[in-house]
Amino acid sequence: MDRRTAIADAALGVVARDGLRALTHRAIDSTLDYPAGSTSYYFRTKSDLLAAVAARLVELSHASFVDIADNETDVATVVGQYLHRALTHRMTELRARYALMLDPAVAQDVRDVLARSFFSLELARELFDEPAHGDGLVSLCEGLIADVVFGRRTSKDIAALRLPIAVYLAGAGRSLRGNSMDTDLP
Hints:
By secondary structure, this protein is mainly alpha-helical. The protein contains ten helices and no strands. The chain has helices at 3-18, 25-32, 38-42, 46-69, 75-89, 91-102, 108-115, 121-126, 131-149, 158-172.
């Protein structure tokens, strides 16, 4: 792993664990046991560091989704597995994302990237003839994630996460491009 990536990953961990105020160049150097000044060599300002964190979240999310989508074709199952993986193996990323998205000190352009870091609105819109249905799918996914992160929903089970996705897709199914969605509802 290159230093820029290691720094972005360490910054994710610091923000998830201690919040934005704890994110300093010195804290990252210390976390990684790098010589003082190393983080600021790669990212001059805190804004540069936050932009790197947002870009890293996009990269990690994309890789996770592609890994699942390469092995599964049913959209509801892909999304359910993706949500499950996020909630069971990527909680640090989720916590950092929420902490940064909610902090008014984070620049709007970085928050815009963070808002699209876990779900691609563009790809969701491409699934449907009606783009608003893609918007709804992303909103549903964001809600399912928030429900678990904030404690309203306790189940992280793939089937429990898949069901509301399948129900939504069945309702919007007439709008699916090619109209060949298999939701496999119980």
